[in-house]
């Protein structure tokens, strides 16, 4: 499983990064103002999107809450 995280450096972004590390998921971290702008983020995910935004494989999952739900539904957590 390979993931992509779009981060603004917030605590939630750090948590999802640690979560993916803890389950040995390979991921690429994109940082706001280093790899993308706020405008690009909003164009990609919508103006109401929260950080972080996570994609796993070719599927956009969503924020940290969405990611936890997805991983649970996939049997990663019980």
Summarize the structure.
The chain is α+β, with helices and mostly antiparallel strands and 78 residues long.
Describe what you observe in this structure:
The protein has 3 helices and 4 strands; from the N terminus they run βαβαββα. It has helices spanning 11-22, 38-45, 64-73, and strands at residues 2-7, 26-31, 53-56, 59-62. It has a 4-stranded mixed sheet with strand order 2-1-3-4, with helices on one face. The longest helix has 12 residues, at 11-22. The chain is globular, with a radius of gyration of 12 Å. The two termini are 18 Å apart.
Radius of gyration: 12 Å
Order of helices and strands: EHEHEEH
Overall number of strands: 4
Number of helices: 3
Provide the helix percentage. Answer: 25-40%
Instruction: Give the overall shape, derived from the CA principal axes.
Output: globular
| Helix-strand category | alpha+beta
Largest sheet: 4 strands, mixed
Mean pLDDT over all positions: 96
Question: Which stretches of 5+ consecutive residues score pLDDT under 50?
Answer: none
Distance separating the two termini: 18 Å
Report the β-strand fraction as a percent range: 25-35%
Strands in their spatial order, largest beta sheet: 2-1-3-4
